[in-house]
Q: What sequence folds into this?
């Protein structure tokens, strides 16, 4: 019995492991695939799409207020006690025990102070605002995904650099051991080589963990299962994302941003909607006029066995005017509140516009800095690599010290890492600049 139980347990465990492995996917990602997946699968973008669809229905709902309302009503009344009138000493019972009624009611507001029309304007502007927010959200999601994508490529490059540093320091340690055993290297040289090797290992582990974290972050942004494996097909090289905007002066970029920034457009539409709210508040001071029509069939009988010929038909048309003359000043207060909301929205728009200018300036200078430093970082990396090669040759010939070799190794590793970070900053700063002027979509359209 025990063997049977162990066999069944082992079978279930193996089946579970196989099922889990079977569901895992290996996904290859390139730059264009990251853009496409982020636009179609990102959860926050999907949520924003639902917001837009909801507002679209609200817009249609605002137009339905212009249509008449038609309702059907059926009433059955059992009068438990009928009213009794006494006249000249005589008692008269009024009414019947049962009353049945079927009616159709049609109502149509004719004049509402413009609230229906202004409401349609509000909902339409809110829809346009959400449309701009949706476009901006799409660019934001793509930017975040590309930043994470290039972050992984950077982490992968830094991992290879750290791995190479470990191999170089290990090879150097082995070489120094041979020299030490042969009596041509000192105890200090050996200790320095060991220290250099030991110091290189933590950097390798750090680069490895950063790469794994970056992969999980990208999976989160692309709505990919954390259990799936990603294969990055691109390498860390210089990209030209700016294209025709590369040589545009700062003032021109600011002008482009004012014409294309989706957040500014969205706030402008919200401001228009808020202004329409003032009109609704003013319209409440005017009278309202509504028309209604009624078609009713009523039967008053003494028993519940009602027949169709017991019903009496009635028709009516009415026109009602309502004009509240005093409501404690609520209408005036509502208008003042609407004015305050408009003022608040104008301040938000002004603040966002100044933030736009600052954002463009920051990203412009960041890109300019990355352009100027990248070439020097590349030259420094080439020089330090050559310096390391020469240091190893000179040390093998006894013409330099072990300290020279260690310094060359450290400088080479540092310059390689700085160069890769410079390429990363160069690429990402272009993406940030395109996003800040509202034209990041140019890279996929």
A:
């Amino acid at each position: 019995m025990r063997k049977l139980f162990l066999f069944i347990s082992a079978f279930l465990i193996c089946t579970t492991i196989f099922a889990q492995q079977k569901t895992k996917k290996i996904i290859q990602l390139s730059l264009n695939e990251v853009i496409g997946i982020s636009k179609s699968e990102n959860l926050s973008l999907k949520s924003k799409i639902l917001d837009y669809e909801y507002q679209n229905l609200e817009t249609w709902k605002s137009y339905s207020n212009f249509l008449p309302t038609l309702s059907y009503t059926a009433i059955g009344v059992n009068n438990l006690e009928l009213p009794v009138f006494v006249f000249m000493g005589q008692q008269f019972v009024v009414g019947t025990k049962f009353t049945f009624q079927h009616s159709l009611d049609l109502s149509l507001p004719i004049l509402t102070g413009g609230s229906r029309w202004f409401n349609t304007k509000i909902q339409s502007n809110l829809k346009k605002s959400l449309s701009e927010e949706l476009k901006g959200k799409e660019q934001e999601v793509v930017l975040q995904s590309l930043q994470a994508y290039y972050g992984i490529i950077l982490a992968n490059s830094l991992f290879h650099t750290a791995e190479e540093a470990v191999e170089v320091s290990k090879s150097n340690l082995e070489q120094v051991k041979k020299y030490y055993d042969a009596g041509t290297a000192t105890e200090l040289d050996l200790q320095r080589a060991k220290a250099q090797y030991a110091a290189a290992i933590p950097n390798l582990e750090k680069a490895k963990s950063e790469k794994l974290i970056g992969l999980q972050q990208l999976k989160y942004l692309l709505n990919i299962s954390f259990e799936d494996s990603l294969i990055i097909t691109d390498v860390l090289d210089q990209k030209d994302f700016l294209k025709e905007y590369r040589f545009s002066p700062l003032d021109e970029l600011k002008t482009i941003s004012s014409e294309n920034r989706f957040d500014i457009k969205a706030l402008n539409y919200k401001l228009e909607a808020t202004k329409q709210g003032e009109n609704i508040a003013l319209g409440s001071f005017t009278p309202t006029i509504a028309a209604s029509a009624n078609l009713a069939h009523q039967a008053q009988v003494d028993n519940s066995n009602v027949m169709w010929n017991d019903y009496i038909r009635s028709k009516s048309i009415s026109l009602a005017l309502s004009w509240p003359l005093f409501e404690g000043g609520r209408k005036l207060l509502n208008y003042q509140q609407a004015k305050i909301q408009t003022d608040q929205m104008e301040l938000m728009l002004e603040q966002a516009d100044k933030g736009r200018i600052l954002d463009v300036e920051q990203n412009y200078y960041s890109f300019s800095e990355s352009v100027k430093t990248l070439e020097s970082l590349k030259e420094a990396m080439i020089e330090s690599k050559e310096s390391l090669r020469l240091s190893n040759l000179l040390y093998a010939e006894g013409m330099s010290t072990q300290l020279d070799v260690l310094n060359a190794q450290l400088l080479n590793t540092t310059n390689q890492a700085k160069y890769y970070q410079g390429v990363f900053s160069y690429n990402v700063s272009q993406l940030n600049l395109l996003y800040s002027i509202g034209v990041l979509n140019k890279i996929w359209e």
